[in-house]
Amino acid sequence: FDPRHYLGTHCYGFPKTGPHRLRFLLESVKDLRETLKTKGSTLVVRRGKPEDVVRDLIIQLGSVSAVVFHEEVRVI
């Protein structure tokens, strides 16, 4: 979870993620984790800037051959 997604927007100061969206996200992540667990896998969930968290995970795992990501589209 990127803490920057819970700050105010650039133009009007409204929260990017309100309480209802946050609850939906948390429930979705919980459900995904439970589904993966039934299939013998797991889900790593971290809080922080993705550029820091991913770097730390790569260092922790030690044998990463690829990293795939998507960039959020910003409408100005």
Automatic annotation (TrEMBL):
Biological processes, Gene Ontology terms: photoreactive repair
Domain Photolyase/cryptochrome alpha/beta per the UniProt entry, residue ranges: 1-76
Record's keyword terms, sorted: Chromophore
Coiled-coil stretches: none
A GO term for molecular function: damaged DNA binding
PANTHER family: CRYPTOCHROME (PTHR11455), CRYPTOCHROME DASH (PTHR11455:SF22)
Protein's UniProt name: CRYD protein
Gene name tied to this protein: Crydash_0
